[in-house]
């Protein structure tokens, strides 16, 4: 069904605009022990502002790559020319519904955003803070009681992010491991596991919405099945598309962010100490870490032929706006390779530019800040456990695995 | 000092509000209220930082 075999490069792409770079397979972007995939993607800044990458999606398609933050803003703020209308998830199942709001364009997109925005607005997120903090402290207390080392991703980052998220959806924790497994298969599985996981998630969301329709409770799916747009209830496909997206969007993005942040702090003791000295610094530091370690590549489809800074983009071409590339643009950020936890002028694009700005950005920020605060409060000076090596990977959503941290006295010697 | 609000460009990042909640007010969806903002002198620095924090460049500063 999918292969990484390159498709023929379209004839309209000038040979001198083809770049030898892929977010999936360039050096440091395939799974790499002790890797730094965001830094590895910054090599594109030695090249032109736009080029064509022949293999730059999960299913081996080519994309134009926009390297400058300013140009990414132009693309992402112009959904009429650069559309989000795809069916990535459904097409893997041979279906054609959209994930909502991700794969809709304005003006349809705005109707759903208006419906969903209040649920995750900055003010609403303030009300969730207590629950978020409590969850973080329980998990970290357990880790601290169990020993002087842990696997951050499986023991903290995933259970933390997924729990907050299930709570938002109105689901209990009982099936947390199962959900994490689905998400893992979906995001990182092979040709067999991915569609199977997709099918499982769709069936689960369909069943949940049917349940809530029969018997509404105070949760997200009940809200959705009772909502109206343009004076009509949502269709079954719209409910599915929204439920599925909300289910997967917050699962591993927050976990990956926490992983990359703790990986950084484990390797930079002075910065770790600087945050410990005054935890109020974490709010600003989290922004710098979001700039330096963002995880998402956005893809748009050209709706018409357009010449973009010398590149002949043709209708149907894919255009990639990788947040990790824009966030290390030297024209946008002074000394972008330097990680400065006190950086102020920091208008990064970890949560996108344009109308698709991450719906969960306010919640995600809170989770990251609270997660780091509670971690630093409870865990003494930590480092990468000697003899272990976390594995990082690039791709559509960047990640880190096997992040074993250690805070024992012996290991410090 | 005045902040010119290009509301059609606002995408609800709420960075301005995070910087200065009393100057930049949000609606229930978390997007900036329409209308330009007159800034009292003692709040100019904060307002300036808030305007400069917008990832979409939706806030202009008019002296
Ligand atoms: C650090 C964690 C996160 C990062 C880096 C992140 C990043 C992003 C990015 C870059 C987009 C734009 C995608 C595109 O336009 O193609 C996006 C969209 C979205 N995110 Fe997040 N996200 C995070 C956490 C979350 C959470 C926790 C939730 C849910 C509560 C969430 C829900 C969504 C939704 C629903 C969209 C689609 C918005 C739309 O199309 O209008 N995200 N996210």
From TrEMBL, chain A:
UniProt xrefs under InterPro entries: Cyt_P450, Cyt_P450_B, Cyt_P450_sf
Q: GO MF terms on file?
A: heme binding; iron ion binding; monooxygenase activity; oxidoreductase activity, acting on paired donors, with incorporation or reduction of molecular oxygen
Question: Which Gene3D superfamilies does the protein's record reference?
Answer: Cytochrome P450
The source's superkingdom equals: Bacteria
Similarity comment: family membership: Belongs to the cytochrome P450 family.
- Protein name per the record: Cytochrome P450
Automatic annotation (TrEMBL), chain B:
InterPro entries annotated for this entry?
Fe-S_cluster_ET (IPR051269)
Keywords annotated in UniProt:
Electron transport, Iron, Iron-sulfur, Metal-binding, Transport
Q: One of this protein's Pfam families, by short name?
A: Fer4_15
Specify whether Transmembrane helix is a keyword of the entry.
no
MF terms (GO), sorted A to Z: iron-sulfur cluster binding; metal ion binding
Superkingdom field: Bacteria
Which named protein is this? Ferredoxin
């Amino acid at each position: 069904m999918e292969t990484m075999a390159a498709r023929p490069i379209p004839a309209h792409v000038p040979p001198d605009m083809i770049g030898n770079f892929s977010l999936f397979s360039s050096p440091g972007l395939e799974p790499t022990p002790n890797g730094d995939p965001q830094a590895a993607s910054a090599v594109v800044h030695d090249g032109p502002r736009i080029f064509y990458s022949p293999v730059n999606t999960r299913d081996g398609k080519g994309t134009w790559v926009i390297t400058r933050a300013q140009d990414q803003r132009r693309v992402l703020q112009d959904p009429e020319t650069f559309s989000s209308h795809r069916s990535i998830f459904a097409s893997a199942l041979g279906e054609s519904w959209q994930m909502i709001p991700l794969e809709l364009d304005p003006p349809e997109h705005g109707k759903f955003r208006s419906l969903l925005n209040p649920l995750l607005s900055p003010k609403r997120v303030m009300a969730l803070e207590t629950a978020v903090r409590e969850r973080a402290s329980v998990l970290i207390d357990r880790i601290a009681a169990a020993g002087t080392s842990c696997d951050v991703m499986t023991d903290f980052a995933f259970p933390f992010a997924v729990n907050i998220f299930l709570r938002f959806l109105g689901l209990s924790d009982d099936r947390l491991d199962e959900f994490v497994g689905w998400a893992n298969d979906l995001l990182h599985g092979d040709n067999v596991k991915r569609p199977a996981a997709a099918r499982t998630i769709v069936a689960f969301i369909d069943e949940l919405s049917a349940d809530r329709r029969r018997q509404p409770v105070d949760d997200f799916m009940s809200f959705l099945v009772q909502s109206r747009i343009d004076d009509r209830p949502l269709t079954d496909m719209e409910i599915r598309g929204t439920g599925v997206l909300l289910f997967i969007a917050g699962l591993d993005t927050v976990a990956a962010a926490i992983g990359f942040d703790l990986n950084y702090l484990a390797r930079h003791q002075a910065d770790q100490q600087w945050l410990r000295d005054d935890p109020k610094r974490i709010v600003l530091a989290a922004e710098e870490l979001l700039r330096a370690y963002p995880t998402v590549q956005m893809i748009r489809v050209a709706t018409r032929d357009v010449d973009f800074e010398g590149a002949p983009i043709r209708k149907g071409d894919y255009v990639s706006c990788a947040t990790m590339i824009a966030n290390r643009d030297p024209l946008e950020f002074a000394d972008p390779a330097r990680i400065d936890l006190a950086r102020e002028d920091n208008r990064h694009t970890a949560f996108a530019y344009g109308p698709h700005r991450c719906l969960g950005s306010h919640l995600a920020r809170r989770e990251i800040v609270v997660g780091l605060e509670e971690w630093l409060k409870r865990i003494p000076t930590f480092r990468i456990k000697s003899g272990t090596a976390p594995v990082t990977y690039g791709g559509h959503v960047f990640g880190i695995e096997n992040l074993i941290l250690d805070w024992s006295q012996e290991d410090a010697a | 000092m005045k902040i010119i609000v290009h509301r059609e460009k606002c995408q609800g990042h709420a960075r301005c509000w995070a910087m200065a909640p009393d100057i930049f007010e949000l609606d229930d969806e978390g997007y900036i209220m329409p209308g330009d903002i007159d800034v009292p002198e003692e709040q100019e620095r904060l307002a300036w930082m808030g305007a400069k924090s917008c990832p979409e460049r939706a806030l202009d500063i008019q002296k």
